């Protein structure tokens, strides 16, 4: 992998970490209420569920 590929990979990893942290903070702030979390983040509930699954945050965390 070239320098650009490694840089892109690190960037993607940092973005994923930031997104996961944002999800966790919003879940905490809204006491796990999915509708409120989605509204707070400006995304649809299906998108929120997809992102939760992507980051390994099952409904057990909600």
Please describe what this structure looks like.
The protein is mainly alpha-helical and 62 residues long. It has a domain at 32-62. It has helices at 3-29, 34-41, 45-54. Helix 1 packs across helix 2 (34-41) and helix 2 (34-41) packs across helix 3. The protein is elongated, with a radius of gyration of 14 Å. It starts with a helix and ends in an 8-residue tail after the last helix.
Radius of gyration, taken over Cα atoms and rounded to an integer in Å: 14 Å
Indicate the low-confidence ranges by residue numbers.
none
In N-to-C order, the SSE pattern is: HHH
Structural class: mainly alpha
Indicate the overall shape: elongated
Q: Percent helix among the residues?
A: over 70%
Strand content: under 5%
Total of helices: 3
Main sheet: strands, sense, barrel: none
Distance between the termini: 38 Å
Mean pLDDT across all amino acids = 87
> Care to count the β-strands?
0
Please, what is the oligomeric state? single chain
């Amino acid at each position: 992998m070239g320098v650009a590929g490694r840089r892109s990979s690190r960037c993607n990893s940092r973005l994923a970490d930031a997104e996961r942290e944002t999800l966790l903070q919003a879940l905490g702030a809204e006491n796990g209420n999915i509708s409120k979390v989605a509204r707070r983040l400006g995304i649809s509930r299906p998108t929120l569920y997809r992102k939760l699954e992507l980051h390994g945050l099952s409904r057990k965390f909600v």
